[in-house]
Structures are given as C-alpha cells and as structure tokens.
C-alpha cells in the first residue's frame, strides 16, 4: 500500500453495523509512500496508522501530473468528483453534443457488503464508498424457516439483495435531496 500527504483514506469497519472510518493522510513516515501514516480523521482526531491486511478500503490516487488531488484543506474532504482528473473512456458517449471532444470523468464507487449469520438468521450491511465524505449505508435480513434445508448461501443472497435494494433507494432519495437543494424545488427522481 502506498499513500501521500493529502490522500483520502477509508478504513473498513471492524464489526458488522459499525461505520467505516475516513480521514486525510497528513504525514507519511514509511519509505516510498509506505506506512505508517499520520492521519487526520473526519471526526477531528489525529493518529498514527499502520494498516493491517484488508483494513483499507480506499486510498485516493495522485493526478496524472503526479500531484495529489486538490482538497478543501485539513478536515475538509473534497466534494464528490472534485479533483478527479478527466479521463477519456473508450466507448463512452461524447458530452456536450457540439462535436468537439469532451473527455468524461471517471469515478469509482465501491459497495462493501458485510454479512453476519447466526443460526437461522442472516444480516447484511451494504455501504457505498465514493469520493463523498459521507457514506450511504443500508441493511437487509433473512430468516430461514425451520423446514428449509440449511444452505447458508441462500440466506446470504437474500439478506445482501435486500440490503442492496435499500441502498439503491437511499441513493435515489439522496439524489432527490441534492436536486432540491440545487434548484430550490421539490424533486422526485423516477425509480425506473
């Protein structure tokens, strides 16, 4: 793992139901961008981080010019998409319709699903991780009937599917709220 001062770092939750943790790398103490890192967390605390295997979900990357992405400074994460370099995407439609080439912006979002099974019950939590400082989270559950055969994968699929369905609805509600905030009018994004 490599990071640089100013990079945004997102850590996985240690238990199901706990939120992820995000912050900004203030200092790199290892060689060649390696750990440990001094991180200013979004809750205002600063601490030394030496991440273990699988604990880091996301580290922002440097721009094509080798510089870290711009951010709002200490404790002020970048808004979604800001500071992300324009990257042409093969097969992507042109933006603007003027005939001039306009490269699109590529953003990568990750959905992390944590599944916990206990007896006949399965609980899943889906968390959407992106460039935004706030992560959307949703949950889903399943229960195996006493007469059903024990097939854990089915409970996982049902609980994860329900969590993803709830996450999709939360994302659309967030879009409704964002549109209303920008336009000053009530918005309702079509659900299909």
The span between the termini is 39 Å
> What is the percent of helical residues?
10-25%
Derived structural class: alpha+beta
Beta-strand residue percentage: 25-35%
Shape: flat
Number of strands: 8
Mean pLDDT level: 76
The SSE string, one letter per element, is EEEEEEEEH
Major sheet description: 5 strands, antiparallel
Number of helices: 1
Radius of gyration of CA atoms, rounded to a whole number:
20 Å
Low-confidence stretches: 68-99
Side by side, the strands of the main sheet go 4-3-2-1-5
Describe what this molecule looks like in 3D.
The chain has 192 residues and is of the alpha+beta class. It contains one helix and eight strands. A five-stranded antiparallel sheet has the order 4-3-2-1-5, with no helix packed on it. A three-stranded antiparallel sheet has the order 6-7-8. The longest helix is centred in the last third of the chain and has 32 residues, at 152-183. The protein is flat and about 55 Å long. Mean pLDDT is 76; it is low at 68-99.
